[in-house]
Design a protein that fits this description.
The protein has 334 residues and is an alpha+beta fold. The protein has two domains: 130 residues, Histidine kinase-like ATPase, C-terminal domain (Heat Shock Protein 90, 2-Layer Sandwich), CATH 3.30.565; 191 residues, PPM-type phosphatase domain (Phosphatase 2c, domain 1, 4-Layer Sandwich), CATH 3.60.40.10. It is built from eight helices and 15 strands. The strands form three sheets. Strands 1-2-3-5-4 form a five-stranded antiparallel beta sheet, with helices on both faces. The protein has a five-stranded antiparallel beta sheet with strand order 6-15-14-11-12. The protein has a five-stranded antiparallel beta sheet with strand order 7-8-9-10-13, with helices on one face. Helix 1 packs antiparallel against helix 2 and helix 6 crosses helix 7. The longest helix is centred in the first third of the chain and has 18 residues. It is globular, with a radius of gyration of 20 Å.
Length: 334
């Protein structure tokens, strides 16, 4: 899995650099069906909007799983939007411009969602998909993720994956290689390979296999969740500092992860079963994200696309002195 491209957006020159690098990402990833021109324009408009209106922020671009397309996430801590629909209407501007930027994003992208609070800032996700992607089955999970290396490192030592299991179940992995840098990344990639070899394996079985398979690496904190929508349950097993939370309309529930390091010292592997109700959102993250976040500080956020959930938490709670990964998943809503 290729790490996302993350661009600070404080001046106009950074917009052009982001546009060039994301266009190169489309080419390198072999996304022939993804319209490069559309991606470039989306990056240009969202980046320019961050510079003009957001008081600076970050633009994050990643290749979607299965080569489905490109996702662009714009995050700022600006004044927020008083009226989201008005801001996306052509001709609307608060900066004396032509007011066509966000409206163009909505026309160019295959999917757009926005979360904005006053005060607090704005998060916008835009996905540009290939033609073949639009005709695919839309059942399953919606997934959003943001991951980044600690400041000064080139690679992220965390990892994550979401796979279809058996009988309509879905498996979610989050792994944090011990330390940071290439050694941590090697441990995480090894865990991902074990996970991919048998995505239908129960969470406890996954952890046992990873504990055995990571013995030649630095080791890692690992957690696996199995979501079974038909039975309305989520089964979770974790070792180390991987946090898991289920968010519903009635509140939040923390998932239990036990102490240990896969590949080195695991005293006990235990599965825990939780209700998985309609509209629930699963959030999992490594300890690079501060643990004091509270979803109730963000009214309505859990009803938006999971990429916005992950993006807002990353924006406000990532420590940046460690690798960080945050993933959100919910039943597909369209």
């Amino acid at each position: 899995m290729r790490d996302p491209l993350i661009f600070p957006m404080t001046e106009r020159s950074q917009v052009g650099e982001a546009r060039r690098q994301v266009a190169a990402m489309v080419t390198t990833a072999g996304l022939g069906e993804v319209p490069k021109e559309r991606v470039s324009l989306v990056v240009n408009e969202l980046g320019s909007n961050l510079v003009k209106h957001g008081g600076g922020g970050e633009l994050i671009a990643r290749v979607l799983g299965g080569g489905e397309g490109i996702e662009v996430l714009a995050l700022d801590r600006g004044a927020g939007m008083a009226n989201v629909d008005a801001c996306f209407a052509d001709g609307y501007s608060t900066a004396g411009s032509a007011g066509t930027g966000l409206g163009a994003v909505r026309r160019l992208a295959s999917f757009v969602d926005v979360y904005s609070t006053r005060p607090g800032g704005t998060a916008i996700v835009a996905r540009v998909a290939g033609v073949a992607t639009l005709a695919r089955d839309r059942n399953g999970l919606e997934v959003g993720a943001v991951w980044a290396p600690m400041t000064g490192e080139d690679v992220c030592g965390d990892g994550w994956a979401v796979r279809n299991g058996e009988d309509g179940r879905y498996a979610v992995l989050v792994v944090d290689g011990l330390g940071h840098g290439l050694g941590a990344a090697d441990a995480s990639r090894a865990a991902e390979r074990i996970f991919d070899a048998a995505p239908g394996r129960p969470p406890a079985g996954q952890l046992a296999a990873m504990h055995d398979g990571l013995r030649g690496t630095r080791g890692a904190a690992v957690a696996v969740a199995s979501i079974d929508p038909r039975r309305e349950i989520l089964i979770f097993a974790g070792v180390g500092n991987i946090a898991g939370t289920i968010v519903t309309d009635k509140g939040t529930r923390q998932l239990v992860s036990l102490s240990g390091t896969a590949g080195h010292a695991v005293h006990r592997i235990t599965e825990f079963t939780y209700p998985w109700v309609k509209g629930a959102v699963l959030i999992m993250h490594t300890d690079g994200l501060g643990g004091r976040w509270d979803i109730e500080r963000y009214p309505g956020l859990a009803r938006h696309h999971p990429s916005l959930v992950a993006g807002v938490l990353f924006r406000d709670w990532s420590r940046r002195r460690d690798d960080v990964t945050v993933i959100a998943a919910c039943a597909r809503r369209s």
